[in-house]
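Request: When convenient, would you put together a sequence paired with its C-alpha cells?
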Amino acid sequence: MQTQTATRTTGYGGGQGWVDEGLTGYVRKTAAPGYTALYRMNLGGGGGHFMTTDAAERTRLLNAGAWDEGIVGYVATAADATHVALYRLSYGSLHVYTSSLSEVANAVADGWRNEGVIGYLGTVLDDSTAALYRVYHPDDNDHYYTTDRAQRNTLVGIHETDQVSTTRSTYDLSGNKLSERIEQAGVVYEDNRMAYDAQGHLRLVKGLSGLKVNYEYDRNGNRIHVRSEYQQLSDDGSSMTSQVHDSWSAYDEQNRQVVADGVGRPYGGYALTVYLGCEWLNPTDSSPPPCPAAAAPSHTSDRSRPFPRMALRCEENGTDWQRPRETGFAASTRQATALRRRRVRS
C-alpha cells in the first residue's frame, strides 16, 4: 500500500510592496444556477481596483476608461448556511470589500460609506471553490483581490515550497504491518521491518542505522518490557554513539497496570522487600528498616526472582521519585496494597 503526504514550508522576503490581509472568503470557480459573476476592474487615476456583480455598472465603468481584469469568480445571489454577505465600502474613489460585519462597522465609524451587499461568498473550500485573497498597497491605499495564490505570494513576498513524502507499507494475511518505508525527495527517512509472535503481538522492529526494538509480553498479552537499541547524534553533530534503553511495565493480579514505562535494570544485587502496606528499595542495604506499619514482609526478592528493579521517573523540584500509579508489586501471591511514594536512592 502506498500513501503520499504533502508538506508545505513557507518563507518570507521580497515582494512588490503589497501587504497580505488574508482570506476574504470563497468564490465558485465556474458559473452555476444561483450564482453571478464577480467582475474586477482597475479604475486608474488613483481609483484603485474595483469589483462588481452588476453587468450594467461594469459596462458603464469600462466605457469611462476603466481597465477590464475579467471575472474573479462567481458569488451566490442569496445567503444560506454556507454563504455570507460580501459588502462594498467606499471612501472617495477608494473601495474595499469584506464579509466581516465588525470591519464594516469600524470602517463606517472612520468615514467610509457602506454601499451594501454585492453578493454572497462561500465559507467552505471544496473542489468547486477557490480562496479569494486580499492584499493592500499602503502607498496607493489600494486593495486588490485575487484567487491566484501564486500571484498573491509574488505581490507580498511569500515563498512556498511543497514537498511530497511517500509511505509504502506491506502487511501479512492477518493485517499485521510487516514493513514501512518513508521517502521524500529521494531521501529515505524510515525503513522499518516488523515481526510478530504466535499470538500476533509485535515483538521486533528493525530499522535504519542499527535501530532495533524488542517487545515482551506477559501471559495476558500486556506489554511489560521494551528494549530499544539505536544510534544517537551528539549535540554538536560530529559523532554517533550506540544507545540502549529499557523500560518496564507491571500489572497486578486483577490485570491493572501498576507501573508504566518504568526504568528497568536486570535484578541482581538489589534488595526489594514488599510489605503489606509499604515497600523499601535500596541498592546497598540487604536488611530493610522496619515497615512503618510494623507489618511483616510478605516477600523479599533476591537473585533467583525474575522481577526487574522498577522505578518511575517523575520530575518534581529537580528530584526523581519512584511513584507507582496505584499499588505495589504482586509479591508471590500477595500484593502490597497501600499507595506509597519514596525516594529512589541510587
Remarks:
- Residues 264-346 have pLDDT under 50 and may be disordered.
- The first strand starts at residue 2 and ends at 12.
